[in-house]
Design the sequence.
């Protein structure tokens, strides 16, 4: 466990990080706005699962492999971009068809698929790997011993708080979106916007 002063500083730092809109937050909101609150929460849990994997890898020293291997890093980056572009094109195709029933997450992509999409999107984001390597060690005190344990505590804290923030946003966006999606024109527009968000995230990830 890090010293309390260091830990409080870490909490302040990640609080700023989490309230700043980023790819994961936009992904959760887009899912919730299109398919409902439950799908948004499922996507948030999927994102958190991906973050947990990244944090565990950083704690165990596995993430250094990606930092030392530019080819592997670029491969993951392009795979993540391609996946987001694929989701964006799917959403655009849906915007040309009648609105699917169920804006509460019970239909549409399904909760399991929303979770999987969130997890894959986060796992294929190489910036999370670099974030884990560069950010977490700044709050570790080697003199206190148990470096791996300190990294695991910091990583677990990050994941728990990220769930709270993203799930809350997913719930809010889902409830607002669910009311609007009852109107066919609005539903098709949401599909178009969702596609634009996914494609935009994919392009942003591709160009770095």
Sequence:
């Amino acid at each position: 466990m890090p010293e309390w002063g260091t830990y409080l500083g870490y909490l302040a730092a990640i609080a700023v990080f989490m309230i700043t809109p980023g790819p994961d937050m936009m992904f959760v909101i887009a899912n919730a706005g299109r398919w409902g609150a439950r799908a948004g929460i499922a996507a948030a849990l999927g994102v958190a699962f991906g973050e947990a994997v990244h944090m565990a890898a950083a704690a165990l020293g596995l993430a250094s492999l990606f930092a030392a291997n530019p080819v592997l890093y670029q491969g993951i980056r392009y795979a993540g971009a391609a996946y987001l572009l694929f989701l964006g094109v799917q959403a655009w195709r849906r915007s040309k068809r009648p609105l699917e029933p169920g804006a509460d997450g019970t239909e549409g992509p399904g909760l399991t698929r929303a979770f999987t999409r969130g997890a894959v999107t986060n796992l294929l984001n190489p910036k999370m790997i670099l974030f884990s390597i560069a950010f977490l060690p700044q709050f570790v005190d080697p003199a206190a011993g148990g470096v791996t344990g300190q990294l695991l505590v910091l990583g677990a804290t990050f994941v728990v708080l990220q769930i709270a923030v993203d799930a809350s946003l997913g719930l809010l966006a889902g409830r607002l979106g669910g009311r609007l999606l009852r109107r066919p024109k609005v539903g098709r527009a949401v599909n178009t916007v969702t596609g634009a968000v996914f494609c935009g995230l994919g392009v942003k990830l591709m160009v770095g």
The longest helix spans residues 147-180. Residues 4-207 form one domain. The chain has a mean pLDDT of 76. The CA atoms of residues 178 and 205 lie 29 Å apart.
